[in-house]
Fold this sequence. Notes:
- The chain is 60% helix and 6% strand.
- By secondary structure, the protein is mostly helical.
- Among the domains are: 22-57; 62-143 and 183-224, no CATH class.
- It has a three-stranded antiparallel sheet with strand order 2-1-3.
- Strand 1 and strand 2 form a beta hairpin.
- The protein is elongated, with a radius of gyration of 29 Å.
- Residues 1-10 and 13-22 have low confidence and may be disordered.
Amino acid sequence: MSLLNPDSTPQFNTAEIPGQAASDRCKGCGQPITGSYYRVGSHLACPSCAERLKREGPQDNHAAFVRGLLFGIGGAIIGLVIYATFTIMTGLYLGYIALAVGYIVAKAVMLGSKGIGGRRYQIAAVLLTYAAVSMAAIPIYIHAAMQHNGTSGSQAKQIAPNQQDSESASKAQDQQAPKMNLAAAIGYLALVGLASPFLELQNPVFGIIGLVILLVGIRIAWRMTAGTSQLEIFGPYEASKSASA
């Protein structure tokens, strides 16, 4: 009988009536407590049942955290794509999408960790949520710049020939100037993206509202990755006296 099977009886997460005859029996297998015993929450367990519960219960280890982190990164990428795509396709900048991003990231982290949460999972979910929302500004900026350049190019065709000659000379000078290499360009875009929630404070009302919504999304990710309460196993104790004492 598995202690983690919801159909198994009795269960460690069910209340036990004080003073009942089975108070000195293992809550898992029902055998009398003799020798050493463990306490699982407020219940008693024999050594074999306690070890089985430790073995079969979810374990917070390095593998679980890495799995949760990888799933969380995937969720952050999905959230970033949703945020940027919606803004580009509709032309509307809705900070409320940050709430959905926080939910997606937290759900992905918990899916990867198989329900295990805790402080390090919360920190990872918060950082990934912030990164997804802020970095979504990069494709949005690039799309806006491409549209602006396209408009400028169509207007340039209508400029007089002498003006075009002066602009050609100016472009030739610009081409001779040192250009930013790819790595520096990517680093610059990343910094701009990460700082975008604060750069938007140049428009105080719009920026503050967006920042508050982002904080709410981060709060959602933090609370969802706190994890569920797990059974605490204490012991072993010696049953020299009544184990329920």
